[in-house]
Amino acid sequence: MGEFINGECLEEMKKLPDNSIDFIFTSPPYADQIKDYGVTGKSVKIKPSKFNDWFLPRAKEMYRILKPTGSFVLNINDKLDGKYQSLFVFKLVVLLSEKVGFHLVRDYIWYNPATPPNVFSRGTMGRTKKSHEYCFWFSKSDEWTFHMDPIRKPYGDRMEELFKASAKGDRDANTRPSRHSFDLSHPWKNNGGADPGSVLTISNTSSNDTFHRLCKQFGVSHPARFPMKLVEFFVKAGTNKGDVVLDPFGGSGTTAIVAEQLGRDFKYIEINPDYCEMAKKWHQVEFHCEEVWNNNLVRFIDEMLPRCKWQLLPFAYVYDLFESWFPTVGLYEKPRNKTLFYDHLKGILKDNDEWKITDGYVEVNDDNMPLPEPLIKEYNLKNWMNKDCDPDDETSLCSPALNSKYMGIRKV
């Protein structure tokens, strides 16, 4: 399920058949942003005045490959062009309709309440900070897939009261200053939630999730990405299970991950090979986490345990050593507590001929835990360092004050 494609999206979309994609959700590079594509070491800087000419050929391919009932959602942000806000985004919307053939279904505002203060917040530049981006929903034809129920928001307290209340008159008796009127002569139907409207309030604050941890592990710097909840909203509303969702500017892979989580198929296209590899790693961890965890632990047992000078390895020591070791060689895995780690370790070692689980607590002596243990320094296991050690003396650094007995694993 799903396909990761490393390549330039215009050329890669040309390879896709007509009417083969159900839904497109994407966020192209910001105008005037330097984007390192990684292949040749070159960077591309697309000026606002040139952005639409660059984007339109790609939009025409999107139109061609979309099914007649398909939709295209464009997440995009504008920028200042000199002293004033550029109009290229609004011109692009017109061009997508008049030159490509898309129909504008609805313009959405993604409001990010977590937008930090910036230079505009000083009040000296004649405007406030920009705390929203646009999401334009386009259809290919007069009919498109849309589901309201999956995206409904919880009713407010007043609405819940109306469901419980008795009749309160017809529209003439229930007008508002806004000139809206409500027919309360009969009970209203409870649809399970309200129309969410066109302003989506979603904070973009994630900084320590699986993808960010992977980026830190492999030393890849990735620009800010849109939140998963933003993708969820549109994929839930505009697709059915099994539909194919395309992101031609795949980046971190958020669209691909969300699509699969929701039971959709996906195609991911990204020109930067580093980003493509990170997206694949995220997908591997997200959907094959048990396999990743098991592979890391088996490798740890085969490669690291034989290096330990100690014959008796306390569970806490094994856990600390594993946590420091696997990011340097293995694929990041979702955090787990120590109890789960111990249980998994026991399961793998139960038939191992070289190590066995201790039967209760074992007394510490020079034969089973000789000092020093060099791996303490090599992997900076602070919980096991001699608190009064000399940093330049490996012998003292790797000779912690040990308890009198431990429960863990023993070398046979």
Verbal overview:
The chain is an alpha/beta fold and 412 residues long. The strands form five sheets. Strands 1-12-11-2-5-9-8-10 form an eight-stranded mixed β-sheet. Strands 13-17-14 form a three-stranded antiparallel β-sheet. Strands 3-4 form a two-stranded antiparallel sheet. Strand 6 and strand 7 form a beta hairpin. Helix 2 packs parallel to helix 3, helix 5 packs across helix 8 and helix 6 crosses helix 7. The longest helix is centred in the first third of the chain and has 18 residues. The two termini are 44 Å apart.
Quick overview of this protein structure:
The chain is built from 13 helices and 17 strands. It has helices at residues 9-14, 48-65, 88-100, 157-164, 210-218, 228-238, 254-261, 273-287, 289-303, 315-329, 338-349, 375-378, 394-397, and strands spanning 3-6, 21-26, 34-36, 43-45, 66-76, 80-81, 84-85, 103-111, 132-139, 199-201, 244-247, 265-270, 312-314, 355-357, 362-363, 405-406, 408-411. An eight-stranded mixed β-sheet has the order 1-12-11-2-5-9-8-10. A three-stranded antiparallel β-sheet has the order 13-17-14. A two-stranded antiparallel sheet has the order 3-4.
Structural class: alpha/beta
- Give the fraction of residues assigned to helices: 25-40%
Strand count, sense and closure of the main sheet? 8 strands, mixed
Secondary-structure element series = EHEEEHEEEHEEHEHHEHEHHEHHEEHHEE
In what range is the share of β-strand residues? 15-25%
Q: What's the overall average pLDDT, rounded?
A: 88
Termini gap: 44 Å
> Rg to the nearest angstrom?
29 Å
Overall, the morphology is: elongated
Low-confidence stretches: none
Query: Largest beta sheet: what is the strand line-up?
Result: 1-12-11-2-5-9-8-10
> How many helices in DSSP terms?
13
Total strand count, please? 17
